[in-house]
Each structure stands twice: as structure tokens, then as C-alpha cells.
Write a sequence for this structure.
């Protein structure tokens, strides 16, 4: 096992429980990794820190199987060493899927995976199915297969899919495709090819749920060996018709004004989840009840507060320009707070919805790139901290505007995660609004 993150530790525990001998390699052991290492050594797992190339080569040659964590990049020397030694390499999702015969609903896409995974799970549960959400959403699939769940709903990334071979979801959902993780994949074609592995092992009795309004996804869907079900706000088997979400049968699922969140990307996610859940055995009543009660996950266009006619939203989960553009599309006038650590992407695509952007506050390592992207398009103010960014946005915003933290970049310049970044934004906004009379935070 290479990497001692949440997934890596889960694989090590699961294999050890099954009687396997496990050695975990960790190149950069921090406090969290060392805590996991201490726990694993208690169940007979050997943990090796910083083995070096020769040490790693010896470990690979002595292993029957190499399992890299999802966060281990393809340039890591373990891949070349495994190939040279003739040792198979398998990801956690592939390994876990070999341990169960239960139906799997797999969800991938550049944006919206976690939301749709949560929604599908809730829809199935509301329909009387014992479903559990797994994968990148929190619970590793190797742990989910050990539960009594009737259906496994798993969020899968391109990294995880790239290391699959026999992985066979009964329902495979591909939400969208936009440039992302090009610091990992050599180009957009390779990124898409990894995503397309989601339906590689499907058959005619399975379902591929695809975005009718994403030409790239539809092009890849032509290769799907399964039944294709489409969704889209305006086009698709599942779509919005006269203010209501409609199923492929033409039945109305729910009115848009009954949803707690109804921005354009919320509607697309709701339609995708409905299509997937129904394909997995949910009924429309369960789908409807889940949608009516859905509040969404934190840091995804979440209202933080309102004062003086200005609303403040945290969309820190938007770590690529495609996600930022989707969020901005839901507003009429936005002061955008953007920037962070760029993932090898062209930040000029942040301007895709520039007609809705009133002004920009640029933050983080990529502040200069953000400023360059909006040069001669919209006014840009640079900020060197989140407090400074929030105060700058407050000056730029007027009644009727929304201030939106939607960075379009990773958080790892200033923060340890997008959640930490969003929490800091909330703290700074609440501190500012507490100074204003009549603020509603």
C-alpha cells in the first residue's frame, strides 16, 4: 500500500482483517499519518516511512499486489518499479468492488460528484432501499462493502477510475467534463479517457447516466455498452419542463419552487441524481421526498449571511474555473473572490460568465493570474488575506449584489483544504457583518 491517507489506511485495515500481510509506505509522514500508522501497527500492519528508491523497489518486488492511494500521482516511482517488477497495480475502488456482488451506483464528473452521490443515496433510502454513500464522499469503498447496505453509491474520481479493470457499476453517472487536474493528467483527452472507464465493464442491462448538455460527455457516451439515460436542464430524458423536473416517463418529479436550492447547477444535479436513483430502483415518491428536504453540503454556494442588501456565499469547493462559472451563472451581479493554487489550468476561463461579474477580488498564489484573466474585462483588487479580501469585497458590493467566494483554484497555498478556506471566509464575513447594524448572519 502506498500512501497513508484515509483511503490507504482503510485498505490496509481491510486487507489485514482478511488475513493478508500488509506493508504501507508513506513518503511524507505528518501528524495524521503517524496517528494512522500507530493504529495500523496495532493490527499487524507494517509501516515504512521514506523508504527511498532502492527500499521501495525491494518492497515492490516482494509484494503480490501494489495498491496506491488516490492521492499518489502517476509520476510516482512506484508505478515504474511495479511495471519493471511485473507486479499488478490496483486502486482501492477496483479492489473493493471485487469483494462484493451488490449493485454499485458510481458517480464521476469534474463537478457535482459529492452532491449527486449524497442525493442518490437519500433518494434510495427514501424509497426503502438500504443504501450507503462511499468513495470520495468520506467512507472508503473497502469499508462500505463490509456494511449491510443493499446498494453502494460511490463517488469516483478520474484517479481512482484510472486504476480500475473489472469495476462494474450497475449505474454509471458522468456529470460533466471540463479542464481539471491537468497537473496530473497529461491532457484533457487523457482525463476524459480515465473518466470513461466508469462504464467500460457495463453490459446492456446496466445504465449509463450522461449529461445531454455536455458535448464532450455525450461524445464519450457513444462508447458506452449499456443503456444510455440522459439529463439536462433543457435537454434530456430527465429535464425541466414548465417549472417542474420531469422523469423520462414524462411524470413530474417536483416543482422547482419546491426545492430549497434551485440555481442552474442545482437543477442539473437534481436531474442527474433522479435519473441515477430511478435506474438503481428508487421510486418517484422517494426521489421527490429526498429533493424536497435537500439542503446541500457545506461550501457549495452556501449562504453565509446578508446585510445592507448584499448576500455572501461560500463556494470554496469550486476548485476549477468550470465550477466557478457554473456558480456565477446562478446570479445576476457578483463580486467574485477567486484564486488560490492553480492546478495547471487556464484561468482565463474564469471570465466565461463575466457579464454577471461586477468586480473581482484576487487571492492566493494565483492572484496575478486571476488579475491577468480579468484585465480590461472587470476591475480587480488583490488581497493578501481572507480578512482583506472580505473587506475589499464589501467596498465593491452594492445593494442587490452577491459576494461569492468561488476560487476556481485549489486551497493548498493558504489552507489545508477547501473546507478550511470556506470556514475562514465564513469567519471573516461574520466578523464584518457583526460590525454592521441589522446584519443577518
Amino acid at each position: 500500500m502506498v500512501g497513508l491517507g484515509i483511503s490507504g489506511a482503510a485498505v490496509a485495515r481491510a486487507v489485514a482483517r482478511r488475513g493478508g500481510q500488509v506493508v504501507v509506505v508513506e513518503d511524507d509522514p505528518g501528524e495524521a499519518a503517524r496517528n494512522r500508522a500507530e493504529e495500523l501497527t496495532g493490527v499487524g500492519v507494517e509501516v515504512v516511512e521514506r523508504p527511498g528508491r532502492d527500499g521501495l523497489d525491494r518492497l515492490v518486488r516482494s509484494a503480490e499486489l501494489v495498491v496506491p492511494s488516490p492521492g499518489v500521482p502517476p509520476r510516482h516511482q512506484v508505478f515504474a518499479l511495479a511495471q519493471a517488477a511485473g507486479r499488478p497495480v490496483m486502486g482501492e475502488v477496483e479492489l473493493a468492488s471485487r469483494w462484493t456482488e451488490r449493485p454499485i451506483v458510481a458517480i464521476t464528473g469534474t463537478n457535482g460528484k459529492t452532491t449527486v452521490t449524497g442525493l442518490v443515496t437519500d433518494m434510495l433510502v427514501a424509497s426503502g432501499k438500504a443504501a450507503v454513500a462511499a468513495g470520495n464522499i468520506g467512507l472508503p469503498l473497502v469499508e462500505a462493502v463490509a456494511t449491510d447496505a443493499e446498494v453502494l453509491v460511490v463517488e469516483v474520481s478520474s484517479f481512482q477510475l484510472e486504476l480500475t479493470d473489472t469495476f462494474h457499476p450497475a449505474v454509471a453517472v458522468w456529470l460533466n467534463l471540463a479542464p481539471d487536474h491537468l497537473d496530473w493528467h497529461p491532457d484533457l483527452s487523457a482525463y476524459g479517457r480515465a473518466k470513461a472507464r466508469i462504464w467500460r465493464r457495463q453490459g446492456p442491462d446496466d445504465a449509463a447516466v450522461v449529461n445531454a448538455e455536455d458535448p464532450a460527455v455525450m461524445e464519450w457516451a457513444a462508447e458506452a455498452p449499456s443503456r444510455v439515460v440522459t439529463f439536462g436542464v433543457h435537454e434530456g430524458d430527465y429535464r425541466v419542463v414548465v417549472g417542474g423536473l420531469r422523469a423520462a416517463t414524462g411524470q413530474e418529479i417536483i416543482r422547482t419552487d419546491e426545492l430549497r436550492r434551485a440555481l442552474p447547477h442545482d437543477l442539473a444535479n437534481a436531474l442527474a441524481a433522479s435519473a441515477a436513483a430511478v435506474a438503481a430502483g428508487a421510486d418517484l415518491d422517494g426521489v421527490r421526498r429526498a429533493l424536497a428536504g435537500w439542503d446541500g453540503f457545506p461550501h457549495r454556494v452556501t449562504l453565509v449571511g446578508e446585510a445592507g442588501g448584499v448576500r455572501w456565499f461560500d463556494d470554496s469547493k469550486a476548485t476549477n474555473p468550470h465550477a466557478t462559472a457554473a456558480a456565477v451563472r446562478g446570479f445576476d451581479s457578483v463580486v467574485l473572490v477567486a484564486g488560490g493554487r492553480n492546478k495547471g489550468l487556464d484561468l482565463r476561463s474564469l471570465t466565461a460568465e463575466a457579464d454577471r461579474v461586477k468586480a473581482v477580488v484576487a487571492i492566493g498564489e494565483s492572484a496575478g493570474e486571476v488579475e491577468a484573466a480579468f484585465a480590461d474585462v472587470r476591475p480587480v483588487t488583490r488581497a493578501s488575506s481572507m480578512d482583506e479580501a472580505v473587506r475589499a469585497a464589501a467596498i465593491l458590493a452594492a445593494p442587490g449584489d452577491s459576494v461569492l467566494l468561488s476560487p476556481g483554484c485549489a486551497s493548498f497555498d493558504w489552507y489545508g483544504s477547501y473546507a478550511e478556506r470556506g470556514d475562514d471566509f465564513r469567519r471573516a464575513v461574520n466578523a464584518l457583518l457583526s460590525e454592521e447594524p441589522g446584519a443577518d448572519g
Notes: The mean pLDDT is 94. The longest strand covers residues 302-307. The chain has three domains: 6-89, 99-292, 302-433. The radius of gyration is 22 Å.
